[in-house]
């Protein structure tokens, strides 16, 4: 169960409105690596975590924080939209400055949300549940979490360079910091899994290694003609991954089997049921005007 | 530019058809972490890579391999569907064994694809471009790649346990192996970025650290009441992340500003334009029958 | 900012697992009228609410409760999936009882989530931000909220009839009750808007009545031949809406204008640019083999 | 079965083209509360209505009208796009007025539709079947209909303020009027359900009240710290809903059960199958280079 | 403007209910080539048609018919669902026949629609506006229409083989016939465009042939190793398309340019801004715990 | 299996950057008829082709070429974005030329991709698997292929008119040429199917003609009042399709059956279970505060 305080985790006050930037910030709300994603990703991971204790508690602490990040961003967007010329008409758009603002605005923030944030990305695509990952395997999921925080911090850093507003920058500095610590924590949690003896290798899931095809689990297939792949550190030293410079296909041709005649693939109509289906077809053809 | 040979990278021959399993395999074709995703993810990363040389070549080698994995899986699905009772009618379904098969089949594999694979996941949701990540930052993207291969290997491992067919298992053993080496290679490439002096910290992007809010980049906020988060290794030793046990909100209330009266938020109608809008509203009310 | 306790708002303990029902419950998690929708709908409404005070506080109280409902349902799903025969192979499926379970299961709950809930509906379609409404107009939004709770309670009632499990039924009884009180509260809040003088009519938004076309705001157009529409109470008494029994179109033909020749609509190619475009086309035709 | 006349229900003639506004109008065509939604919503409700007579006839009359609204808007969009500078090149865009128009246009209206309307919203997101509701329960659906017309009228009102074009405003006045009468009619139809004895309470569905948890169907949980929720009219008088000021969770912790080892959740790999899975993992680790 | 009669275009009466088949029929309602698609495709083509007269009238006649096809199928689905064991519980599912039905049913038809059709395909994916094409170019669109009717007839034919119900087969025979005539009519309309001199070649759009690269508009590039492509009729005779047996890339390497340092691509951080960004990064690294 | 060379199929070098045009080109990458669509459409058709030989080889040759087209366009987009003012702030936007560029840019190309292409269309909607068709019936699929190439060439032609850049135009001339030859080849392949005796009529699938309703496979229903449909060439001569000028519905009313009371459709609650459900409802009403 959750509780809420009206106070924001961190202040979200722009110095002045900027409707164009309000659209760009939507990426951090409803984009594939926005705050709605990490909120839902961590919540589902936490609820689906099978071990009570430190891992689950860390996940739920972080998940709960992220709901508050959506809140901060939604508040910032509403404030950036204050006084936005949403209802400017064609005449007004002839003023270049006004035009600049209107051309770059998110029309749905005005028409649909009445001057507030949408659960969408910067292009207006609604947030989707398919953005999140919660597999029940902590190694696989912590790696996805560190990756998500890296993409999130990268987008935040880009957006940090797209504004001069001190109030916005102040909040983004906080967001950058949280994305830093969250990257650190998920990487540390991966190390902890090993320290706890829960994972022996960095490969997820940590099993089926005997069953997997041992001939093919340490080779890179050279299938593009760039000459430098084999010169990377990954192909050197004790842990070297072998570079197969002239790889050959191991399988035969990918022929699909004869289809069910009742599904009317071209093959069956032509070859198998020639006496019946085709006969009917010919007869029908004569009837067709 | 690409070239194709009809020979599969690895054999994809089931011992016998299994229409129910053909549906499950769709997750590895068109799921969020299926082969269509890694294909497109690596292709866009390669095309968007700004440094010629080993990193780009490694990405393109792997991308090109993955197209062939979609091919192997699509071929396997078509073969698993051979002789599937797709057109069995209500009467036939009364046979329990038949019913078991029909209940678990993907109806679109028959109706839409004529007995072949769909570009969908195991629930029939079409593959989407939003599954992929290609940010132009190699550290962030390699971490996403390692995460994707971990999820992919996890799903393959689960599917490995859902079949007894030696032919299917043989192919999945190959897939498990490729997912293993691809995890290794992306992790090794992350290490290589540091070895090359391209990255100094594991935090992506590797910049803005001075600007980010230094007070908040090393604290975990204790916002769920699980008591064990602070006992993790992540809060111990030299690299310890501090656990804020009683965190307080740093911002004020998240009040949204007064909206544009022309957008008809409740506030404006009531308070601002009382003399006009409300007057009109009252008058209008009398007119409304 | 939010806080979380590990205790559920209400108990979510099935008497025994039921993997088929676990799929159906997904509709209440990630369906268009599931708990993810009301959570996000109320959160965005609250953050976008322009009047501090009772309305905003009521919205945020309810929003915060709903996050906990997603939690209860996700927990219930994980428990219903305990021991589910997710990895049963083709051979096992020949047992009718097993087949019944496997045919009705959500394959992604096993393959993707490792035996947990997905952020999807009962057919596996991911939850989407487009399900929610938060317009900034309280009358319009409260009406949408009452409607959402009605659909939610209806689906819960249907699901209540699809199980015999006392533990599941116990939780659904709680959910039914919450959907009841939430319907009451949003309807009461609509009345309160009028009591507060914030709305004068039940028509949202409460403005532009003078501007709207007065000739057409009280007539139902009889455009289907069902004879009984005009006999409804809506066409009787003081508030009667007039039934136009033989309505005629008021506009002219919907002809589209002549298109830009550079966009190659058929018209322009044929008629306008005949001397040039068509000349070229003819010439080109001769060249085409 | 349907029939069509080429005459529009109401005239759709702009005084002059306005390509920027043509994009905004897309929200009324293919947005979540646009005319495609009410068209399909009412059609499916009508086809799924189980009682012949006045309710079904009213639904079908309205559904049929709404198809004509999509037609009016699509025609208006094509006319607003007449002469749009769709093919202006980078050089032309240096003219500020031209730039203003091009920056605000929907690029797909030119590239994909050749200067016509798209089945999309104002941000280019395609209309989706998930926008509609047709549950078979008239009380629940009529409430959703009134809510949809309220959102639709609100968006129309906002768009009315975004243009000065007399021809566009004329059509929108008609649309406002239709949204008014449709709100009235669905609210009247809700009253009629009660008058007919089909519904006894405003709670949908009108059943399971004895079964629902009586302890929890009249309380609002105070879970956000806003102090004013309890001061609303909803908590006063005979129908008062009780405000639980210090609500406590009623359930235990939301622990997920032990997962199936074959699904490789972290728990199972670590604790249960230690002797087998982990043993294999360790052995495999030694083999991994 | 449209009008509706309650009479169906053709009878839609199954002999007996079949809930499993009701799910499959959803493909013809809300699939990519279902009736919702042709309805909306033809409507938008008609509204966007720039030439008054026979082409536009043919399009609108057909569009209007298709709305009635959605109606027939939705009615059929509701009737096939009569008495469906939607609320059967886990216990009941132990009966194999019941299990067969329940495993194959669409759970949303019961939970969401109350026993009616959904605006979805056979896998529950909502219909999307992106399925339709209406480009304003009649040749391009008529070809898409003929293709859509071919896919539609193919799916109908497959579904025809999946039922024994005489009532269902009767309706599908009508649908097959309509798909036949619609294919004929769109192919005839393509011929008519040429007869009218509106199109000179079968290539759409009928322009830019002089501008297009004449060296490359009649060659097939042999990029897969299948040996038989060049033996097709398409490479023979007067109209022969040349088969390039050993095609070579015509362009240089696809190198992406140096990115904007402010976007933090790996390249810029490493090479360009070494003195600044990297310096900061190193300093920051020391600070990071 | 596939192989890749770093050389592009054709050069993709703009003379100078043009960030606005980079957004428009997204339609050719990730739009419904962009290169990702034809790539995946032909790949799935090839893998699903049941006849070894010339048809399958032609499909795979073309599929392999198309992957290289996505590559060319992605490269072009990255080059068009070189030096784009992605990080210009509100102040900079006051310059009209800058504003023109920023208003028309795709914000995700900067924020998400770091200055590269996205797997999206020109409005930012992610590419979807539902765009492709691969039915297993060659006649139906070749017709869809010809239609897709026609839409693709039409969009390319429109985009050709939206730029003056000689480098861009050079590449588009190549694309136009490829779209021309691909239209020719799929039309020729349709002719070849007939020449090979695989298809007897132009109607797909080539079967069930005797079963289909012969009364209705050669009539156009006149359902819109446009008078000219019957004057088309399609209604003349030996192959004339009959125009039904006064068509009458052939079916009865589309009444839906009585629903399952347990699903709480309005009908059942009111009429069937009056003594029980309604009784409970009344009782419950008294209890409701």
Provide a concise account of the structure shown.
The structure is a homohexamer of 289-residue chains. With 289 residues, the first copy, chain A, is mainly alpha-helical. Chain A has helices spanning 19-30, 35-47, 54-80, 96-104, 107-111, 138-160, 166-195, 266-272, 274-287; strands at 2-4, 219-221, 242-244.
CATH class of the largest domain in chain A: Mainly Alpha
Give the helix/strand class of chain A. mainly alpha
The main pleated sheet of chain A reads as: 2 strands, parallel
Content of β-strand of chain A: under 5%
C-alpha geometry of chain A: globular
Average predicted confidence as pLDDT of chain A: 91
InterPro entries (chains A, B, C, D, E, F): Ferritin-like, Ferritin-like_SF, Mn_catalase, Mn_catalase_dom
Keywords (chains A, B, C, D, E, F): Calcium, Manganese, Metal-binding
Protein name (chains A, B, C, D, E, F): Catalase
Binding site for Mn(2+) 2 (chains A, B, C, D, E, F): 66
